[in-house]
Amino acid sequence: MKFINYFYREFVPKSQKDKEKQEAIAPLHHKCVRVVKEGDSWKEIFNREFDSVEYEAAENFCFHLSSKYSESPQEVREQMQAKLSQFVELAESAKAYSENRDLTKLSELGEVIDYFKKSREKTYMFLSELPSVLEEKDREMLNSSAGYQALLKWGASPFMKGFGWQLQKEFNITPTAIKEEAAQNLVRELGETEANLTNQVELLQQENEKLQKELSEIRSQALQSAVCQLVTTLQKQSQPVLDQITILYQRLNKMSESNSELSLSPSDSLSILIALKNLLQALNSLNVT
């Protein structure tokens, strides 16, 4: 609505000569749009609806409207109705000026506009039939628009061909604009991906440092636990092994201080043998062989 009211002057005749020419032929364009909706074949339409004076201009209008008669009146109606419905459905996506516009929908909207933008006849019929697919409130607003009524007044003027192109340009949905926006989105996504990966690497490094610290603590605790288990096992023998070794060491040390050569009595030798046996048994119980 705002687009039409703002730009409509670009698509209507400006000079007096152009206005007089369009004023004379505009009623015929109105009639062509109406009768296309009522006929099954072009021949039937021309023979029934147009006299010899109107015939040539009407045929020229329908020739371009039907893509050189490659489409029947029914096909023109059905295709135009489908494009109008698509346009209304997709138009909301063009209003979303954000960094995350749905480019797929915008491309589809651009293709809808491509359907009529190169033909002033199709553009005129598109605008004429647009109210038929709008909600009642929107239909009333469009019909009451001065810009919209001005576009209809002058029929399919030569200026009408620029309507579709300007519409795509205004909402930034030309093929070039969509490609550029897609490229910008890709660059932004790559930047975001790189930032996310950098953050993940930093988090993994922090996690690794934390795990290394925890592993070191676990190893330290495991060592202490193993030492405690060893000591406990040695001391829980029928004769505490560590106590025996300590006593033997003290006796041997004392003997080494008082004599130049160690001379063990049978009793001392037996004590050492027993202590070593207990030590080996204690280690064996810990699976140390």
Radius of gyration from CA coordinates: 48 Å
The description of the largest β-sheet is:
none
- Count of DSSP H/I helices: 13
Oligomer, anyone? single chain
* pLDDT < 50 stretches: none
End-to-end C-alpha gap? 93 Å
Range of helix content: over 70%
Beta-strand residue fraction: under 5%
Structural class: mainly alpha
Q: Structurally, how many domains make up the residues? A: 2
Total beta strands: 0
Structural shape: rod-shaped
Order of helices and strands: HHHHHHHHHHHHH
Mean pLDDT: 86
What is the topology?
Elements: H1 2-7, H2 16-36, H3 42-49, H4 52-65, H5 73-95, H6 103-117, H7 120-129, H8 136-143, H9 146-153, H10 162-170, H11 175-235, H12 241-258, H13 266-285
Helix pairs in contact: 2-4, 4-7, 5-6, 5-7, 6-10, 6-11, 12-13
Give an overview in words.
By secondary structure, this protein is mostly helical. The chain folds into 2 domains: 2-186, no CATH class; 213-285, no CATH class. It contains 13 helices and no strands. The chain has helices at residues 2-7, 16-36, 42-49, 52-65, 73-95, 103-117, 120-129, 136-143, 146-153, 162-170, 175-235, 241-258, 266-285. α12 (241-258) packs antiparallel against α13. It is rod-shaped and about 150 Å long.
Task: Give a nutshell description of this structure.
With about 290 residues, this protein is mainly alpha-helical.
